[in-house]
Each structure stands twice: as structure tokens, then as C-alpha cells.
UniProtKB/TrEMBL annotation:
It comes from Leifsonia poae. The lineage of its organism: Bacteria, Bacillati, Actinomycetota, Actinomycetes, Micrococcales. One of its GO terms (molecular function) is heme binding. GO terms for cellular component: plasma membrane. The chain crosses the membrane at residues 250-269. Heme c 2 binds at residues 165, 168-169. It catalyses: a quinol + 2 Fe(III)-[cytochrome c](out) = a quinone + 2 Fe(II)-[cytochrome c](out) + 2 H(+)(out). It is a multi-pass membrane protein. Its EC number is 7.1.1.8. This is Cytochrome bc1 complex cytochrome c subunit. Residues 58-137, 152-230 form the Cytochrome c domain.
Amino acid sequence: MRANNRTSTKTARKGGRRHPLATVALIAIGLGLTGGAYAAFNTSTASAEPQAAAASQQSVDEGKKLFQSNCATCHGLNAQGTTNAPSLIGVGAAAVDFQVGTGRMPMQMQGPQAPEKPVQFTDEQVKALSAYVASLAPGPSVPEQKYLDGKGDAANGAELFRVNCAMCHNVAGAGGALTEGKYAPPLTNVTAAHIYEAMVTGPQNMPVFNDLNITPQGKADIITYLKYIQNNPSPGGFELGSLGPVAEGLFLWIFGLGAIVALTVWITAKSN
């Protein structure tokens, strides 16, 4: 009986033992699956990259055609600048998106500065022009959406605006006059992207506020402040153009003094 039990135990052990090649087969299957997945991922990535590059190059080519037919007269055939207009090499996509996207360019006529007017290109054409100019040399790019959502710190933005911008644009962003026929435009109804682009490119008479002067988050805070005062009416009632003490003083001088003169004339006429 004992011999039979030992024999059956050995037989059971032999029956439950793996084949020597089973481990090798499992490893081979695992490597095959891993390698196939990796190859498929690389193939999809490799096919996506040339498509993106081709789309980008197509945009640059389209922008070049638009530039040569609309902008080269003033800025030169290769954007190198002329006696009538500056070079655009190194200004980046942000400058083009601001100037063309607000209608300031192309200019209708020479003047102290380019006024805002209806945009002459579609959004896709503006992007193509920006892509072409950006391809010439590195420069400020179009800002990321996370800085344009108006969810920054309005209080910090108000402080930054008062210190850096209010002397020209007015503390309420109503704009103001400068010298020699120039002016700081009002900032009401200006898109967040164009406000940000103006800060990093310094259009017209505006200085450049790079990331060392005002951080990207600081710029986002300024945008938040401007959107706040735009969406919240003045608690004092009629704003008189938000031009501050000049408009208020002129109002009082004309109407207040006029009322006093009229009252004086009326009293004099009654006394006679």
C-alpha cells in the first residue's frame, strides 16, 4: 500500500509540473504584445507629427502669400523693413495678431499712430500671417488661454494697472491724450488676448512689459481688473467719460458757474 501511495504521489507531482518551454513561451508572448503596442503607438505618433508639421508649413506658406500681397509694400518683401515701416523680423506672432487682429494694420494712411478700425482679414488669415512672421525669427507668441480667462486677482491687477498703465490709459482704462497727436486708446471692449499682446509687444507709444517687468500671472490679474470695471457700472452714477477730475471740474465750472450767473441776473432783474 505504501509503495502504491508513493507511486501515485510521484505521478501527481509529475502531472502538475510545467513544461520547461512554458516559461519561455509566456515571456515571448509578453514581449510580442509589448513590442506590438509600442510599435503601434510610435506609428500613430510618427504619422501625427508630419501631419502637424505639414499643416504648420501650409499656414506659413499661406501667410507668406498674404504678406507679400498686402504688407510687403511698406515692410519689405522679406519683412526686413523700409523707410516707411519697421522690420518685422523678431516681433513674433503676438505683434501681428494684435496689429492685424484689431484692424490697425494695414494702415490706411500715415499718421501719428495707427487707429483701430474694422479688421480686413479673417481669423484664419490673421493666424497665417502670424505664423509666417513668427517663422522668420523668435518673438513673443500668442498668449495661452489660461492667462485670458479673467479669473485672476482683480485687486492685484488694479494695483499693477495704477502703477504701470494709469498714467496714460486713465485709472478706469478710459484712455487719454498724449503729445503730438498721439493718444492712449480706451481699454473697454478690448479682448483679453489683445490686452496681453499689447503688454508684451509695446505697440505704438506703449512700452514693452516683458515677464521680468510684469509676470504672466500679473498680466492675467490686470486683464481681470479691466474686465471687472468693464462689467460693473460706476457706483457714483454718471461717469462723465471716466476722465476724472478734469471732466468733473469742467462740468461744475460750466453748469455750476452758469447757474450762479443766471441766479444773479434774475435777482438783479427782480430788484429793479
